[in-house]
Amino acid sequence: MDSGSIAWMLMASALVLLMTPGLAFFYGGLVRGKNVISTVMYSFISLGVISVVWVLWGYTLAFGEGGNAYIGSLSNFALNGVDTPDEQVFAIFQMMFAIITPALITGAFCERFKFKTYLVFLVLWVTVVYAPIAHWVWYSDGWIAKRGALDFAGGAVVHINAGMAAIAAAALVGRRRNIEQGIEPHNVPFVILGAALLWFGWFGFNAGSGLAANGQAVSAFLVTNTAAATAMVVWVILGMSHGGKVSGVGAATGAIAGLATITPASGFVGVDSALIIGVITGIVTFYAVYFKNKVNLDDALDVFAVHGIGGIIGVIATGIFAEKAIGGTEGLIEGSSTLLVENIILVIVTVVYSLIVTLILLKALDIIPGLGLRSDESEEDQGLDVSDHGERGYVADGADN
Asked: Which residues pair with 374 in a beta bridge?
């Protein structure tokens, strides 16, 4: 990389890191006040735990030289041999993706998952689920990459992966007690602030994924903002048509859905396609959230409806709308069905692998003495802030309900 690209990639890495505390605010505002610290800490602790895991063995499993089509080697354990500025900035940038992906899953099991078990889950999930999928899709010799599938910034690796893991977690942990139709967010300003920080950081997430300060980065920046804005407007319109009000939470959720969906396509599509993707995303994810209470699965903060479905739409849309002049590959609109077929295969593989391996991992953690997935009923009633952290987010009477 030239010095300008290195500077941009360091900035993009910092932007992606900011997304994790942004997610902490977004999720933290959506839960009850007695669980705000617990929910924020699910995201914040990932900054520490996954940074260490990534440096030691996560990076080399995903991108280590000398591996095979399915997993990297251990040649770069503890970043051994990762010596040049180009290699180090790539390792830094990819670290930020590894940090936020498991944090996304926590929206499915917040308010009832044991924190000490979550720490173990973080380490194991990044090792056996995230790193292999990242290797398949983003490493030049990964088996999916060699087939020709495209995922510019993580529609499958991050969003479908987290969305399917969220389904597995919600199914095994079970529904929250005494909650039939969801809960009222305890701090809507937190939700909007978190969404704004995520939106801001997402420019590094998407525009940085070309690994250079060039025209593709500019295009990715533009279509990222366009899809997010369009999906948010669609959510607001649909929300008004159903309830007559402009929901701050709805606007924030719509923006995040648009951001998640444009992620895999952002380096390959133009602004006209981003508008279409934003409209489709807004409609589909809005009704996915709207009707989620009809299924007996307590994905508390709609991880699958927003990230899982958004990622699936985005990966398929990449196969439809990709433009050769932008990303070097023709999509269906330009006359080739090859990319669409390979990206559908990418969706299927990610869905199956993430769901099955996460189910196995969580089931194993649930039967290990001293761990287990779910907090005790008394701890849930008291709030996980006190039971897991010995702290309260708020001390005013009634603010923790």
From this structure: 113
The string of pLDDT tens digits covering residues 205-230 is 999 999 999 999 999 999 999 999 99
Q: What is the tally of helices (H) and strands (E) in the chain?
A: 18, 0
Supply 64's token pair.
């280590």
CB atoms within 10 A of CB 182: 15
Question: What's the confidence (pLDDT) of residue 208?
Answer: 97
Alpha-carbon distances of 268 from 170, 183, 322, rounded to whole Å: 34, 39, 5
Whether pLDDT at 317 is above 80: yes
Q: What is the pTM of this model?
A: 0.96
Give residue for tokens 């977004």: 26
CATH number of the domain at 3-381, please?
1.10.3430.10
- For the chain, which residues make up each domain, given as ranges? 3-381
**Percentage of the residues of the chain whose pLDDT score is greater than 90:** 92
Question: 151: closest CA among 260, 71, 73, 231?
Answer: 260
- Per DSSP, the residues of 7-70 read HHHHHHHHHHHHHHHHHHHHHHHHS-GGGHHHHHHHHHHHHHHHHHHIIIIIHHHHH-TT--SS
The pLDDT of residue 182 is 66
What DSSP state is assigned to residue 304? I
CA dihedral 152, 155, 161, 164 (to 10 degrees): -160
Neighbours of 193 (CB within 10 A): 17
Mean pLDDT over 336-359 rounds to: 98
313 C-beta neighbours (distance < 10 Å), count: 25
- For 380, residues 6+ apart whose C-beta sits below 8 A from its C-beta are 111, 112, 176, 177
Q: How far apart are CA 334 and CA 273, in angstroms?
A: 12
Rg (CA), the chain: 20
| 112, 127, 192 from 185: Cα distances, Å | 16, 33, 11
- Other Cβ atoms within 10 Å of 160 Cβ, number: 33
> DSSP readout, 362-400?
HHHHHHSTT--SB--HHHHHH-HHHHHHS--S--STTTT
On the 0-12 / 13-18 / 19+ scale of CB atoms within 10 A, 334 is middle
- Within 8 A by CB and 6+ apart from 247, the residues are 236, 239
Give the pLDDT confidence of 253-272 residue by residue, as tens digits.
999 999 999 999 999 999 99
CA gap 66, 170 in Å, rounded: 37
